[in-house]
Amino acid sequence: GVAQSGATYSITADTGAIAAGTEHSVSATFKDSAGETTTHDATFTIPVWEIYNLGTAAPGSAAGVISVREYWGVGGGSISQLESHATFPDSPTVEKDAGYFEWPQSGDINVKPAGNVMDNYGVQMIGFLHPPETADYQFAIASDDNSQLWLSTDANPANRVLIAKESGWQPLRKYQPVGDEATSVFISLEAGKAYYIEALMNEGGGGDNLAVAWTTGDAIVPDALPISGEYLSPWVILEVVEVVDVSQPGDPVVPTSDNHPGGEHAGFAIDNDASTKYLNFDKLDTGLTISTGGGVVTGLGLTSANDAPDRDPASFVLSGSNDGGATFTEIASGDVAAFTARFERQELSFANEAGYSTYHLIFPTVANEGGANSMQIAEIELIGTAWGIYNLGTAAPGSAAGSISLREFDPVPGTSIAELIGHPSFPDSPTLETNIGYFEWPQSGDIAVNPEGNAAGWFPTSA
Question: Across the chain, how many H-helices and E-strands are there?
C-alpha cells in the first residue's frame, strides 16, 4: 500500500520470509502526474541477533536463576526503542543472574525492591521455565515502563510467542486483572519439559521495575510473588565472580556529623554485628564515608536496626572517590524499600563498572520524617568485587629481598591518579608485572645512572 504524509510517501509490502544476515535489494518506481517515472534503489540487511544462538542446552531441572541483561542509555520507554538500540541484544552493559523473575530486585523474593533505581536503560530476562506439574498456567507481567513477555512452546526461542505486555506502566508487582493485556490466557505446560521464556522492559525516567508471576488456579493479584528461581534456569552460563562486602570491620569511617550517641557511632554500621547500630540525630541527609581496600561496588546490603521503624533509611545516594575523598562521583541513588521487620537484611542492586577506594553513602530521607528523631541503621555492606591485588601479597619477610614489585597499566590516558585508579585494568590486570632493584621507574638498571627521560607514552605504574 501507499500512504502520504505531506511531501513524504510510504510504501508497505509483504515480502514473505527473508533471511537475516544477508544483504537484500529493493527498487521502487514512481510515475508522477505528468507521466514521468523515477526509480529509487536501496539495500538493507536484517541483523542477526546472536544471543538466541548462544544459549546453553535446556537442563533437565531448574538451576535456580535466570539470566538478566541490562542495556544502558536506551531512553524512551518503548520496547521498540530497546530493540532498535545499537547494543541490543548482543552487547549488554551488564549481565548477571537473578534468583527470581524480577528486576531490579532486593535479593529476597519476600521483600520488594526499591522503586526507583536507575533511568534510561532496558532489561532482558532470558532463560528456561520448568513447570512443577502438568497444568494450565496463567502469567502476568508488571513493569515501569513498557514490557513484553514471550514464551516458547518448547526450549527453542524460534518458537516463542508474545503472551502478555504492558503498554504503559505499573508500580512494583501491580499485576493487572484477567482480560488486561498484561495478563495472559491459560497456557498448557508439561512437567519435566523446559520452556524458553523471555521478558523485555525499557525504562525512561522515574520508577523502574519488572516482575513476572504465574498461577494454575486463582487470579494473580497485586503483590503476588514473582516466579521463584526453583522453576528457572539461565540462558547463558556466566563466569562465577566472587561478590563480597568491599567494606570491612575496622575500615576508617567518618560520619556526616558527630550528632550521635557515643555507643552508636558510624563504625558500628560496618562491624558485621546487627545487634549494634549507627544512629544520627540529624535525621535527614545523614550517612558516612568509608575508606576501603578498593573495589567495584554494584549493590548495598542494609540491615534494619533493633527498634523505631520510623528511623529506617528511605532513600540513598552512593558516591565514590579515588583521591582520598577530595572529590566524589555519584554511583547510584534511589529508594530503599520499606523494611518489614527488625534486623531484616535487604539488598539493593545497581549498575556500576567503576572502582573506587573511598565511598560516601548518604540517606537523604527516613521512613517517617514526622515520627522519627533520627536515622538509624544496623549494618551497611558495600557489595561488589574487591580489588584482589591487595589480598595477594606475600607475608612480609624478616629482611629486605632486594627488589620491589612493579606493575604497568597500558594505555591509560590522562595524567591524574584518579584516571589510573578508575581504569578497568587497575589494579588486577596489569599489562606488565616484574620486580625492580630500586624505587624508580623507568630505570637504567644502575641506580647511579639516570634513566632516559621519555621511555613511552601513557603507561601509569604501580610500584
Answer: 2, 28
Beta-carbon contacts of residue 27 (< 8 Å; ≥ 6 apart): 39, 40, 41, 42
Q: Are residues 365 and 281 in the same domain?
A: yes
Q: What is the pLDDT of residues 337-349, one digit of tens each?
A: 999 999 999 999 8
Q: What is the mean pLDDT of residues 225-243?
A: 86
Each residue's pLDDT tens digit, 268-284 = 999 999 999 999 999 99
Across all residues in the chain, what is the average pLDDT?
Answer: 88
Per-residue H/E/C for 350-412 = CCCCCCEEEEEEEECCECCCCCCCCEEECEEEEEEEECHHHHCCCCCCCCCCCCEEEEECCCC
Residue 418 — left, alpha, or beta (φ > 0 → left; ψ -120 to 50 → alpha)? alpha
Residue 400 has pLDDT above 90, yes or no: no
CATH number at residue 255: 2.60.120.260
- Looking at the fold, whether 61 and 104 belong to one and the same domain comes out as yes
Q: Is 395 contained in some domain? A: no
Model-level pTM?
Answer: 0.57
Which strands form 432-436's sheet, in the order they lie side by side?
A: 432-436, 404-408, 461-462
Kindly state whether residues 373 and 417 are assigned to the same domain: no
Q: 225 and 86, same structural domain?
A: yes
Q: Which residues, including other chains, have CB under 8 Å from residue 13's CB and lie 6 or more apart?
A: 1
**Is residue 39 a contact partner of residue 65, using CB atoms and an 8 Å limit?**
no
Same domain flag for 325 and 382 = yes
Segment 235-253 mean pLDDT: 85
Number of domains in the chain: 4
CA pseudo-torsion sign 367, 373, 379, 380: positive
Q: Domain residues for 15? A: 2-45
Over 147-184, what HEC string results?
A: EEEEEECCCCHHHEEEEEEECCCCCCCCCCCCCCCCEC
- Judge whether residue 200 has pLDDT over 50: yes
Alpha carbon distance 433, 438 (integer Å) = 15
Q: Are residues 297 and 152 both part of a single domain?
A: no
Q: Domain check: are 213 and 311 in the same one? A: no
Domain membership of residue 394 (yes or no) is no
Residues 78 and 223 in one domain: yes
The DSSP result for 96-163, as a single string, is EEESBSEES--SSTTSPPPS---SSEEEEEEEEE--SSSEEEEEEEEEES-EEEEEESSS-GGGEEEE
